[in-house]
């Protein structure tokens, strides 16, 4: 299990960036040996998988990293719970997708955000291999891309690309416009995305069991960390 550095916190400037842009890119959070162990685990998983927290302790860094968890709290401002640790590969030749937001409920007032995601780059992310694109500041607009853009799969004039080395994490507001882009290389681009929700918001909103843990995982994590998930012995 990952052991965190207790003193690391998100800085004032980083909070300002998160408030203004709706995302914060933090490089070098996972070292190469750990990336290697994560890749080995992911090689057993074919495609999209919503509950990596039950698959292996190698992914625990994605919900144990002190600074990242502080960043999530800064966005949602209240107790929060996991809606799953998701394996998000972008296969060679695929990835064209519509700009979207992570939260499907009624529009929220600027500053009153109920969802936050954290994207962990497990491969290097480049524009060539289908890195994520995002529209800075769009979390403050209170509208989803499909309400504003005729075709949200098209480029947006204000979009930027999240490029970075494997081991980089991006904390992003759940109301920020973002999407995957086309992977023009012959290699799979690997990512893990952690979805977080305010505890008061139902996480079974789409009928999935996102964010549940089984008995083995609850035992591995212990009572304190298990509280980040829904503990269900029956899965
Ligand atoms: O894989 C990506 O580039 C983005 C994934 C995404 O949109 C998400 O997990 O919410
Ligand atoms: Fe998304």
Question: How does the SSE layout of this entry go?
Answer:
Elements: H1 12-21, E1 23-26, H2 32-42, H3 61-64, H4 66-76, E2 80-87, E3 115-121, E4 132-134, H5 145-148, E5 160-162, E6 169-173, E7 178-180, E8 191-198, E9 212-213, H6 215-226, E10 230-231
Parallel strand pairs: 9-10
Antiparallel strand pairs: 1-6, 2-8, 3-6, 3-8, 4-5, 4-7
Bound molecules: 2-oxoglutaric acid and fe (ii) ion (FE2).
Structure in words:
The chain has 235 residues and is α+β, with helices and mostly antiparallel strands. It has a single domain, classed as q2cbj1_9rhob like domain (Jelly Rolls), CATH 2.60.120.620. Helix content is 22%, strand content 19%. The protein has helices at 12-21, 32-42, 61-64, 66-76, 145-148, 215-226, and strands at 23-26, 80-87, 115-121, 132-134, 160-162, 169-173, 178-180, 191-198, 212-213, 230-231. A five-stranded antiparallel beta sheet has the order 1-6-3-8-2. A three-stranded antiparallel beta sheet has the order 5-4-7, with no helix packed on it. The two termini are 22 Å apart. The structure holds 2-oxoglutaric acid and fe (ii) ion. Fe (ii) ion binds next to loops.
Oligomer: single chain
The average pLDDT value, as a whole number, equals 92
- Shape annotation: globular
Q: Which range best describes the helical content: under 10%, 10-25%, 25-40%, 40-55%, 55-70% or over 70%?
A: 10-25%
DSSP, total strands: 10
Structural class by SSE content: alpha+beta
Number of separate structural domains? 1
Largest sheet: 5 strands, antiparallel
CATH fold description: Jelly Rolls
Helix-strand sequence: HEHHHEEEHEEEEEHE
CATH superfamily: q2cbj1_9rhob like domain
Alpha-carbon distance between the termini?
22 Å
Low-confidence stretches: 1-6
| Overall radius of gyration | 17 Å
Bound molecules: 2-oxoglutaric acid, fe (ii) ion
Count the DSSP helices.
6
Q: Beta fraction of the residues? A: 15-25%
CATH class: Mainly Beta
CATH architecture, by name, is: Sandwich
Strand order of the largest sheet: 1-6-3-8-2
